């Protein structure tokens, strides 16, 4: 499978090998301007921007390939670039009026301006309907007031795409230049990982922009479309991080000797490394499918599978490195830290699992057919994937009959269904891209996914009892919580 | 207010709340998906709220062919008429 072996990926691999050093970037604080300029000279910031606006006019898949190569070497740099190529510029490319596009896209393509997207607020995370930042018309201008939290690229940004209230009930996406009077960038958040990427609160105090800077008045729907791009690129970053973890682990287990033989000769280690490779293969396949679909539910499948896969792969890398795994200089600890947030941002996985299930529950079932021809030696594996698909159809019918529309409130049930669906669709993606050359790793990936899906469906029947037991445990815990001793004094106050 | 009107008013309010639009935009002929932007989540939210408020089981499978707001109202009326309370569902 070589879906991301593109010319720009090869160029960036050479650049990353020569120029990127994640430990040094992290030690220096935020990604510096000199590095941004070098990336800009390579055309990185214009990959997805149309050629007539100064970009390269390439596809989402090309952008994913670029992000994979950058994140193999430095996830902070890849986060900055990926955010720019997806959330930071997508709404402007897709929805801006011609004069606004002409003003901003060339600057974004050249890297003169870096894009950022601000939707989350302290009270509006997974539920974006709670957004309170307000935009209102005043003559030929729009005035924006409010505060956005955890804005990636906050300090690098030349402009923000801001999700706001619009009128009394609707939402809008508004372009706000970072240097507009009234825009204030808060202090940098100190995060678990991706230390050299910028994350801060942005305050908009009566910021005035031209009326044409309202990119779309279908704010929430548009935000979800933009988020689909963002999720796909973020998942590509997970592929790069997991590839780095696998590379480091292969070198380590080949050289490290214990009990008279290398770790790589031990069956349990071989199984762990093979599993890492199989999960990574699945991650690449789901990202390829999402990039080809250019959004929609495929981006949700990729986001969930790639973020959880990356964490598993990096965690195994730390484990197989033994004590070296937790030593920062070795580098695998950073990979684990860097990928943890991806299960949270751009849609927490728990919420996305429910969304995936609901979308499936609410549509009439269609006969499942495999789009692509499966490579011959994986025919038996395809049967396992098909069996999982049929089991999911059966489970969906049972859940519909048992709960009716009230299933929307049964999150544990939705999560089980969602997990099975992610496994099944990931298996399909693997089968779609696998060739005879990589049939072994692809076959293992499908076996693992079929088992994962079957386990998720088997867990459906236990959820009622588990929910009741959990209720009893949580009753006292949550009713009278103990003040945490771990938060900073400032937060505790 | 007659029961029928009350049900329609309640459903209109629910749709407006879910979609964050003015009640007046929800007309009998409004198409749930194309005109009101009700995606799968919105549709299930609506049916689930109705199911809860009326204590009636709403079958998702039966609700899949609904096109307009009036279709949805008539469907819920049928569910109430057939009255299979939600808490007795298998």
Search tags:
A: 493 residues; alpha+beta; eight-stranded mixed sheet; 10 strands; B: 90 residues; mainly alpha; 56% helix
Structure characterization notes:
The complex is a heterodimer of chains A (493) and B (90). Chain A contains 16 helices and ten strands. Chain A has helices at 7-19, 22-27, 33-41, 60-73, 75-95, 98-110, 219-255, 267-293, 297-320, 332-340, 349-361, 379-403, 411-433, 439-458, 463-479, 489-492; strands at residues 114-118, 134-138, 141-152, 157-166, 170-177, 183-188, 199-210, 214-216, 257-258, 261-262. In chain A, strands 1, 2, 3, 4, 5, 6, 7 and 8 form an eight-stranded mixed β-sheet that branches. A two-stranded antiparallel sheet of chain A has the order 9-10. In chain A, a hairpin with a 2-residue loop joins β2 (134-138) and β3 (141-152). In chain A, α8 (267-293) runs antiparallel to α9, α9 (297-320) packs antiparallel against α11 (349-361) and α12 (379-403) packs antiparallel against α13. Chain B is mostly helical. Chain B contains four helices and no strands. The longest helix of chain B is centred in the first third of the chain and has 17 residues, at 3-19. The chains are: A alpha+beta (493), B mainly alpha (90). The A-B interface holds A 129, 168-171, 220-221, 355, 358-359, 361-364, 400-409 and B 20-22, 37, 39-41, 43-45, 47-48, 50-52, 57-61, 63-64, 86, 89-90.
Break the fold down into its secondary structure elements and pairings.
The complex is a heterodimer of chains A (493) and B (90).
Chain A: H1 7-19, H2 22-27, H3 33-41, H4 60-73, H5 75-95, H6 98-110, E1 114-118, E2 134-138, E3 141-152, E4 157-166, E5 170-177, E6 183-188, E7 199-210, E8 214-216, H7 219-255, E9 257-258, E10 261-262, H8 267-293, H9 297-320, H10 332-340, H11 349-361, H12 379-403, H13 411-433, H14 439-458, H15 463-479, H16 489-492
Helix pairs in contact in A: 1-4, 4-5, 4-7, 5-6, 5-7, 7-8, 7-9, 7-10, 8-9, 8-13, 8-14, 9-10, 9-11, 9-13, 11-13, 12-13, 12-14, 13-14
Chain B: H1 3-19, H2 40-54, H3 60-63, H4 69-82
